[in-house]
TrEMBL record, chain A:
Key words, A-Z: ATP-binding, Nucleotide-binding
Domain of life: Bacteria
Record bears the keyword Nucleotide-binding: yes
Protein name: ATP-binding cassette domain-containing protein
Organism lineage: Bacteria, Pseudomonadati, Pseudomonadota, Alphaproteobacteria, Rhodobacterales
GO molecular function terms listed in the Swiss-Prot or TrEMBL record: ATP binding
UniProtKB/TrEMBL annotation, chain B:
Record-annotated membrane-spanning stretches: 40-62, 82-107, 119-140, 146-166, 193-216, 245-265, 286-314, 326-346
Keyword Ligase (UniProt): no
InterPro entries: ABC_transp_permease (IPR001851)
Compartment list: Cell membrane
Protein known as: ABC transporter permease
UniProt KW keywords: Cell membrane, Membrane, Transmembrane, Transmembrane helix
Entry keyword annotation includes Transmembrane helix: yes
Lipid bilayer topology: Multi-pass membrane protein
Source species taxonomy: Bacteria, Pseudomonadati, Pseudomonadota, Alphaproteobacteria, Rhodobacterales
Primary location recorded for the protein, binned into one broad class: membrane
Length: 257, 351
C-alpha cells in the first residue's frame, strides 16, 4: 500500500478544560478524496485546523510526506502546499476575483517598476486567474475584475476552490463547501471537487451532507468525541450506518466500546 | 434525498424567476450597480453641480483667481484628509490627525528656533515624529486591540497637551520665521499658473493624493489595505498579516500628517498651537463626502480630494453670494448625511 501523504498522530488540543481534540489520528493518501464527518462539536473542525495551521496542537505529530512538520500559521501550511477553503471562504467581497485569487501572493511587474515601486502585474494576474477559472469550467464569470460580492454563492465558492486549486500543490482542504448552496450550485461544486481530484491532488472534504459525502469520497473518516472513531469505505456502508456511527447509536466492527 | 432533480424543471423555474427579477429592477438598480463600481461618481456629480450652481449665482466665482483660492484654502485639510482616508479604508478612524499636525508644526518650529537645529534637519525630525505618532496609534490598535475611535480619542488629547507643553502656548510669529527659518514657510509660497495663483501646499496635496492612488491601486500593499478594511478575518485567513498592514497604515497616516504640518505653517504663516482646531472633523467630513465608506474597504482615494474641494466650493460660493456662514455648516451637514445614506444604499448590493 502507498504511504499516506499527510498524517497526524495522537493530536491533542485543549481549550482550558475542554479537550477539543483527544488523541486523534488522521491519514490522507495521495490522490484520494477523504471525507471527514462527525456530529457538531465532535472536533472535526479543530482537527482540520490543526493540519491546516490555524490551530497549534498541544501534543502529537503531523507529518507531510513522512517528514514531521509544525505549522504556526495558515501561511506556513500554505507554503508547504496545503490550501484550505474555509466555510467563510476568506474572500474580500469588495475586491475583484483576480485580486482575491492573488491575495497575499501578488505578482509584481518585472523590472524597475515592480522592484522599486512595487507595481503589480495586473495583466499577468488577470490572465492566470482567467485560465484557472476556465480550467475548472467556471468561465460563466465574464469579468475577472468584477467584485466578488456581485457573484452568486456558487460562483464565490468556485473562486475560492479555484484559488486553492491554483496554489495548493499537495493538499486541498474544503470546509463545508456546499453548506450554503442550492442544489444546482452544490452540483457544480461537487463536479469541481472531482475535477480537482482528477489532477491528482488529494482533497479533505468536511461536510454534513451525507449524499454529497457518499457521492464523492473514497474513504470516510468518522470523528466522534474528539478522536477518529473509524474510517469506512462508502461502498461498503450505508449512509444510515455512517450516521449511526457518528452519533454513537451503533459501533463499527472492530471498535471496542 | 434527491440531489439531481429533473433538469428541465430546474432550468425553467430558475429562468423565469431570473427574468422576472430583471424586469422589476431596471434603472434604479443600474444606478446602484454603477455607483457600486464607481463610488467616486457621487462626489464628482455633487462637485460639478455645485460649481455650476455657484457659477450662475455669482459671476466672480468662475475666475481662475477664485478657483485657485479655493484650492489654497483646502490644501491643508485636503492633505490631512488623505491621511484620514487611509485609516478609514481599514474601517478605523483617526481623531488625532489634527492634533498630530499642529503638534508637529510646533516641533519643527521649536527645534529650528529654540534649539538652533538646522531647518532641514528639524523638518526631517518632524517627519520622524509623524511616523512615531502613527506607530503609537498603530501599536495601540494592533497590539492592545483597542478600537481606533477610542485609541485616537486618547492620543488626540495627549498630542494636544504635548502641543501646548512644547509651544508654551505661544505662537512663533511670521517675521521670526521669515528671518530664521523661511524654509518652514515653503508650502505657503505662491506661483502663477495662467492667471491662477497656486501655492506649493496645493501641489503637495495633489502629489500626496497621486502617490496614495498609486500605492492603493497598483501595489500589493494597497490591495491588502482594502482587504483588511473589507473583512479582516477573511484577509487573515487568506494569508495577510493584518496587524502589519494596519500598523503601516497608521504610520503612513502619521507621516502624511507631518507633511500637512509643514504645509500648515506656510498656510497660516506662523506656528500657532491653537490653529486648525477643527481639522480633525473637517478631514473626516472630506473623506465621508468623498464616498469612502466608514465601514472600510470601499471607496477611491480620489474621493476625499473631491470631498475637500466640495466643502471649499460651498464655503467660497456661499460667501461670494453673501450668505451667512452658518449656512455653510448647514449645507456641509446635509452633504455628510446624504453621502453616508448613499454609501449604505450602495452596500446593499452585496447582500
Amino acid at each position: 500500500m502507498t504511504e499516506p501523504l499527510l498524517t497526524a498522530r495522537n493530536i491533542v488540543k485543549r481549550y482550558g478544560r475542554v479537550t477539543a481534540i483527544d488523541h486523534a489520528d488522521f491519514d490522507l493518501y495521495p490522490g484520494e478524496i477523504l471525507a471527514v464527518i462527525g456530529d457538531n462539536g465532535a472536533g472535526k473542525s479543530s482537527l482540520i485546523k490543526a493540519v491546516s495551521g490555524a490551530v497549534q496542537p498541544d501534543e502529537g505529530e503531523i507529518r507531510l510526506n513522512g517528514k514531521p512538520v509544525s505549522f504556526d500559521s495558515p501561511l506556513a501550511a500554505r507554503k508547504a502546499g496545503i490550501e484550505t477553503v474555509y466555510q467563510t471562504l476568506a474572500l474580500s467581497p469588495a475586491l475583484s476575483i483576480s485580486d482575491n485569487m492573488f491575495m497575499g501572493r501578488e505578482i509584481r511587474r518585472p523590472g524597475i517598476m515592480g522592484k522599486w515601486f512595487g507595481m503589480l502585474d495586473k495583466p499577468a494576474m488577470d490572465k492566470f486567474a482567467r485560465d484557472k477559472l476556465s480550467e475548472l469550467g467556471l468561465m460563466t464569470i465574464q469579468n475577472i475584475s468584477q467584485p466578488v460580492e456581485t457573484l452568486s454563492g456558487g460562483q464565490r465558492q468556485g473562486v475560492a476552490v479555484a484559488r486553492a486549486a491554483a496554489f495548493g500543490s499537495r493538499v486541498i482542504i474544503l470546509d463545508e463547501p456546499t453548506a450554503a448552496l442550492g442544489v444546482k450550485e452544490s452540483r457544480r461544486v461537487l463536479d469541481l471537487i472531482l475535477d480537482v481530484k482528477s489532477r491528482g491532488i488529494p482533497i479533505v472534504l468536511i461536510s454534513h451532507n451525507m449524499p454529497h459525502v457518499f457521492e464523492v469520497a473514497d474513504r470516510i473518516h468518522i470523528h466522534r468525541l474528539g478522536k477518529r472513531l473509524c474510517v469506512i469505505n462508502p461502498k461498503e456502508h450505508t449512509m444510515s450506518d455512517a450516521v449511526a456511527y457518528m452519533t454513537g447509536a451503533k459501533l463499527p466492527d472492530g471498535v471496542a466500546a | 434525498m434527491s440531489d439531481a432533480p429533473d433538469p428541465v424543471v430546474e432550468r425553467n423555474s430558475s429562468e423565469t424567476v431570473a427574468s422576472f427579477e430583471h424586469h422589476s429592477r431596471g434603472l434604479l438598480d443600474r444606478v446602484q450597480h454603477f455607483l457600486h463600481r464607481f463610488p467616486t461618481m457621487v462626489p464628482v456629480i455633487v462637485l460639478v453641480l455645485s460649481l455650476i450652481a455657484f457659477g450662475l449665482i455669482s459671476p466672480n466665482f468662475f475666475s481662475a483667481f477664485n478657483l485657485s483660492l479655493i484650492m489654497q484654502q483646502v490644501a491643508v485639510v485636503g492633505t490631512l484628509a488623505a491621511a484620514q482616508s487611509l485609516v478609514i479604508l481599514t474601517a478605523g478612524i483617526d481623531l488625532s490627525v489634527g492634533a498630530v499636525m499642529v503638534m508637529i508644526s510646533v516641533v519643527m518650529g521649536r527645534l529650528s528656533l529654540d534649539l538652533g537645529i538646522p531647518v532641514p534637519i528639524a523638518i526631517v525630525l518632524g517627519m520622524g515624529c509623524g511616523l512615531l505618532t502613527g506607530a503609537l496609534n498603530g501599536m495601540l490598535v494592533t497590539r492592545l486591540k483597542l478600537p481606533p475611535f477610542i485609541t485616537t480619542l486618547g492620543t488626540w488629547n495627549i498630542f494636544l497637551a504635548l502641543n501646548y507643553y512644547l509651544s508654551g502656548r505661544e505662537t512663533i510669529r511670521s517675521q521670526t520665521l521669515d528671518a530664521e527659518a523661511p524654509l518652514l514657510k515653503f508650502f505657503g509660497e505662491r506661483f502663477n499658473l495662467g492667471g491662477a495663483v497656486l501655492t506649493y501646499g496645493v501641489v503637495l496635496m495633489l502629489i500626496v493624493f497621486i502617490v496614495l492612488w498609486y500605492a492603493l491601486n497598483k501595489t500589493a500593499w494597497g490591495r491588502r489595505v482594502y482587504a483588511v478594511g473589507d473583512d479582516p478575518e477573511a484577509a487573515a485567513l487568506a494569508g495577510i498579516q493584518t496587524k502589519r498592514v494596519l500598523l503601516s497604515v497608521y504610520m503612513a497616516a502619521g507621516f502624511i500628517c507631518a507633511l500637512a504640518a509643514w504645509s500648515s505653517i506656510g498656510r497660516v504663516g506662523s506656528v500657532s498651537p491653537t490653529s486648525f482646531f477643527e481639522a480633525n472633523l473637517e478631514s473626516i467630513t472630506a473623506v465621508v463626502i468623498g464616498g469612502i465608506s466608514l465601514f472600510g474597504g470601499r471607496g477611491s482615494i480620489m474621493g476625499p480630494l473631491i470631498g475637500a474641494l466640495i466643502v471649499g466650493v460651498f464655503n467660497s460660493g456661499l460667501r461670494l453670494a453673501g450668505v451667512d456662514v452658518l449656512w455653510q455648516l448647514f449645507a456641509t451637514g446635509w452633504l455628510i448625511i446624504v453621502a453616508v445614506a448613499v454609501d449604505q444604499w450602495i452596500r446593499k448590493i452585496s447582500s
